């Protein structure tokens, strides 16, 4: 009962008093003017901390949901990507892969995603494309870009605008299938002159590991040229061409088929990598939000206790002042 | 069309170049090194990208004529599925020049395929697939790669719908006006006729 009386007395004195600001590591992040102006002396910054906690919790929920969505999309597309892996193996077995080939017209096909929040895979692809361009920039060499996906477009339009031939976006609006990719490949082959096509994508190795890869497809003329110079392609001449047409026509069909097969696999692998990268990005984001929430909870409790202590101090000092 | 691998194959890989051509490499992994070196020079801070060579599955190496495998290793791949490294006795592919039989020790060849039936003979099993065009590579080490845009087992094809579509495409062919439409309708008719004959076998 005495305490209650003291408390009542204390309240009359507390209002004009400005409480000692408790030592609080989060203090600096809150605007000091805000606290004092807003809500009265006692619950100075608990309200602000509570607001922050609520928004961080919401963000955590959103990122967790995005991770689940990405996981389910990954499951759906992973089996298809793995099934398509056998498609380009025979071509590499026959024609080899020669990224160091020296040709005049290089076309760099960069495959990226349309949506963001997927970690650093798109930036890696763009950096590699730029690197390939630098690698193949000789006196009579030129390199052009064919861009698949919004993210590469945003990055490459800034500094290489005049080297971009084609931009294709919204690839994943409908589920990926070979017909769509082969039409796309046909489009690219028709509109772009090339001696070598270098496809840059992220190969899906596992849910946490994506390897930037580049596959090289040569045009039929270059294949013939390299076949004559020997090496891996030199064995090409020993293969009997059974097509009923001339060797160059068959070679042309072959390289076009190779391009569409490699593109199909590349697009699927990149989609898998995108979902996997998004999963891990959202996972680390929700973990981070959880950490922030823990820290904020501690800060909240500390602030709350500090304000209670302050209140008690006011009461007691007021009471002892009265006693004299 | 059964031919034996020629011994001339080996002599081709020893090319006596007068000056070093930067592309000619004697072995497959070597081609990557030039690329790696050039990359490291130009972009030292970024790891070089991987190339398909790093992911290719191992294949039996080219062997001489005297040492012919007893079974054919066949890889049937399509964008949606693959059967790899099946050891079989014989494969019959529908090449554009007609049905072609492939036995172990067949000469190296690249052939275009037209829509038709692919038959795989394994001991006494006969498995039939319908493939809608593609390519077949036969290597000298008795490995055959068959790449098809679509490969379906014959059992899964529905005869009634084949007939309906055939009628439909024949109509389209007769009413086609532009070359493109004619070509498309012709392709449809070809595939469906082949399907029809495959089903009736």
Automatic annotation (TrEMBL), chain A:
CDD domains: F1-ATPase_gamma. It is a peripheral membrane protein. Keywords: ATP synthesis, CF(1), Hydrogen ion transport, Ion transport, Membrane, Mitochondrion, Mitochondrion inner membrane, Transit peptide, Transport. GO terms for cellular component: mitochondrial inner membrane; proton-transporting ATP synthase complex. GO terms for molecular function: proton-transporting ATP synthase activity, rotational mechanism. It holds the Pfam family ATP-synt. It is found in: Mitochondrion inner membrane. The keyword Transcription does not apply. F-type ATPases have 2 components, CF(1) - the catalytic core - and CF(0) - the membrane proton channel. CF(1) and CF(0) have multiple subunits. F-type ATPases have 2 components, CF(1) - the catalytic core - and CF(0) - the membrane proton channel. CF(1) has five subunits: alpha(3), beta(3), gamma(1), delta(1), epsilon(1). CF(0) has three main subunits: a, b and c. Mitochondrial membrane ATP synthase (F(1)F(0) ATP synthase or Complex V) produces ATP from ADP in the presence of a proton gradient across the membrane which is generated by electron transport complexes of the respiratory chain. F-type ATPases consist of two structural domains, F(1) - containing the extramembraneous catalytic core, and F(0) - containing the membrane proton channel, linked together by a central stalk and a peripheral stalk. During catalysis, ATP synthesis in the catalytic domain of F(1) is coupled via a rotary mechanism of the central stalk subunits to proton translocation. This is ATP synthase subunit gamma.
Automatic annotation (TrEMBL), chain B:
Coiled coil: none annotated. Pfam families: ATP-synt_DE_N (PF02823). It is found in: Mitochondrion inner membrane. It comes from the Eukaryota. Residues 72-149 form the ATP synthase F1 complex delta/epsilon subunit N-terminal domain. GO terms for cellular component: mitochondrial inner membrane; proton-transporting ATP synthase complex. HAMAP family: ATP_synth_epsil_bac. Belongs to the ATPase epsilon chain family. This is ATP synthase subunit delta, mitochondrial. It comes from Olea europaea subsp. europaea.
């Amino acid at each position: 009962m005495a305490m209650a009386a003291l408390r009542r007395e204390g309240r009359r004195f507390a209002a004009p008093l400005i409480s000692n600001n408790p030592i609080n590591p989060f203090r600096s992040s809150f605007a000091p003017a805000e606290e004092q102006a807003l809500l009265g002396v006692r619950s100075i910054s608990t309200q602000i901390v509570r607001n922050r906690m609520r928004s961080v919790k919401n963000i955590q929920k959103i990122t967790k949901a995005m991770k689940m969505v990405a996981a389910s999309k990954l499951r759906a597309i992973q089996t298809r990507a793995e099934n398509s892996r056998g498609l380009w193996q025979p071509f590499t077995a026959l024609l080899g892969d020669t990224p160091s080939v020296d040709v005049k017209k290089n076309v760099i096909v960069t495959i990226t995603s349309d949506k963001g929040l997927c970690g650093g895979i798109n930036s890696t692809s763009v950096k590699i494309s730029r690197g390939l361009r630098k690698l193949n920039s000789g006196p009579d060499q030129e390199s052009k870009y064919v861009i698949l996906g919004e993210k590469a477009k945003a990055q490459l339009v800034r500094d290489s605008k005049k080297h971009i031939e084609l931009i294709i976006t919204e690839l994943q609006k409908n589920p990926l299938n070979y017909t769509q990719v082969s039409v796309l490949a046909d489009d690219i082959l028709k509109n772009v002159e090339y001696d070598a096509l270098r496809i840059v994508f992220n190969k899906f190795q596992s849910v946490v590991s994506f390897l930037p890869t580049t596959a090289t497809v040569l045009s039929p003329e270059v294949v013939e040229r390299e076949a004559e110079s020997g090496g891996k392609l030199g064995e090409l001449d020993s293969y009997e061409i059974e097509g009923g047409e001339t060797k160059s026509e068959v070679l042309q069909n072959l390289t076009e088929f190779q391009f569409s097969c490699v593109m199909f696999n590349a697009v699927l692998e990149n989609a898998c990598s995108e979902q996997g990268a998004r999963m891990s990005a959202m996972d680390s984001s929700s973990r981070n939000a959880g950490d922030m929430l823990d820290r904020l909870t501690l800060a909240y409790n500390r602030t709350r206790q500090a304000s209670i202590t302050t209140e008690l101090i006011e009461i007691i000092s007021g009471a002892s002042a009265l006693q004299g | 069309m059964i031919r034996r691998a020629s011994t001339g194959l080996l002599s081709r890989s020893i090319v006596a170049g007068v000056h070093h051509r930067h592309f000619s490499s004697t072995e497959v992994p070597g081609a990557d090194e030039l690329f790696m070196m050039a990359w490291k020079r130009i972009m030292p801070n970024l790891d070089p990208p991987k190339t398909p060579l790093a992911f290719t599955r191992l294949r039996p190496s080219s062997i001489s004529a005297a040492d012919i495998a007893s079974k054919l290793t066949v890889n049937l791949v399509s964008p949606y599925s693959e059967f790899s490294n099946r050891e079989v006795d014989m494969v019959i592919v529908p090449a554009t020049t007609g049905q072609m039989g492939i036995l172990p020790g067949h000469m190296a060849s690249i052939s275009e395929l037209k829509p038709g039936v692919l038959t795989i003979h394994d001991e006494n099993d006969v498995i039939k697939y319908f493939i809608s065009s593609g390519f077949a590579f036969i290597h000298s080490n008795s490995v055959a790669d068959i790449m098809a845009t679509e490969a379906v087992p014959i059992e899964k094809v529905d005869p009634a719908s084949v007939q309906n579509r055939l009628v439909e495409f024949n109509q389209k062919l007769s009413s086609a006006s532009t070359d493109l439409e004619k070509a498309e309708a012709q392709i449809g008719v070809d595939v469906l006729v082949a399907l029809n004959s495959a089903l009736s076998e």
